[in-house]
Amino acid sequence: MSYQSIFRPSLFEGRVVVVTGGGSGIGRCIAHELVSLGAAVAIVGRKLDKLERVAGEIREQGGTVSIHTCDIREEPAVSDAVSAILTTHGRIDGLVNNAGGQFPSPLELISAKGWDAVVRNNLSGGFLFSRECYTQWMRAHVGDSQCGIVNIIADMWNGMPGMAHSGAARAGMLNLTETAALEWAPLRINAVAPGIIASSGMDRYPPEHKPIILAAASTIPLRRLGTESEVSAAVVFLLSPAAAFISGACLRVDGAGPNARRMWPRVGGKPNEAFNGFHLAELPAILRDA
Questions:
Q1: Which of 18, 245, 255, 275 has the fewest CB atoms within 10 Å, i.e. the most exposed one?
Q2: Helices (DSSP H) in the chain: which residue ranges?
């Protein structure tokens, strides 16, 4: 079996794309799809074992991948990682800022340390990786490639109760996307905002969040959760030549979740059919056990 992408197999032939947070979940899926389309990928993360697992999967499929352990919150580490990627691959055509993380907490209980950790994960790290890829390679070679930068944010449109630190950081990342699209043009900078996606990240939340996750589909107009493949397809489109006139934009992949309103309680009927092209997709344990 191999990745069943809707895009042509040679779309990214000869291109190199960096995927942060590539050791699990959505980042793992994105890395696999890009490789299936001819790209070489550099996957970045903090945990070597996770990166090695994904790299092994990709190599079994005949793909080209390098692994780079890095704490995206640390400026020297990010600079060194980008330099190492260039030493390994000789170029960087695209960057997917996917790494991030948060923990649930009421706003009044978030400490300054906890706030800083989440903001650095979801905003500062993306800025640092973008800046280093831009200054070390992209600025001088933007005319040589149809790729660009895609920032993974989140559904934070009506606030993010229970995770205010993450919502604030993701909103900041969207604003950074819009600013960079102007300052760094003609390099294209876009964002993808996933809604509630059936991914491994679900299993990291505490047990009291299980009922909320299991009930989530009933609040989404399309009546289901999203798949990792649906997020990956959006990323691939924005990196592709078909999106050559798209920059500073945000593509929502959320089943119209933010559009649900109390004044219109009906949120759809039968769920539409999900797209799942990832041959190694793993349903989160919280959904398998439901």
A1: 245
A2: 25-36, 48-60, 75-89, 112-119, 125-133, 139-141, 164-183, 210-215, 228-239, 285-288
Q: Find residue 69's DSSP bridge partners.
A: 45
First to last CA, the chain: 28
* Cα–Cα distance measured from residue 193 to residue 184, given in angstroms and rounded to the nearest whole number: 21
257 neighbors 184 (Cβ within 8 angstroms) = no
Question: Which of 29-33, 104-108, 263-267 has the lowest average pLDDT?
Answer: 263-267
Please tell me the distance from the alpha carbon of residue 267 to that of residue 142, in angstroms, as a whole number. 43
Q: How far apart are CA 137 and CA 24, in angstroms?
A: 26
Give 209's pLDDT tier (boundaries 50, 70, 90).
Answer: confident
Task: Read off the pLDDT of residues 34-45 as tens digits, 9 standing for 90 and up.
Answer: 999 999 999 999
pTM given for the model: 0.95
Tokens of 46: 């903090």
Q: Is 208 a residue whose pLDDT tops 90? A: no
**Is the model's pLDDT at 17 over the cut of 90?**
yes
Helix (H) or strand (E) holding 95: strand 94-97
CA-wise closest residue to 126 among 85, 78, 163: 78
Instruction: Measure the CA–CA gap between 224 and 221, rounded to whole angstroms.
Output: 8
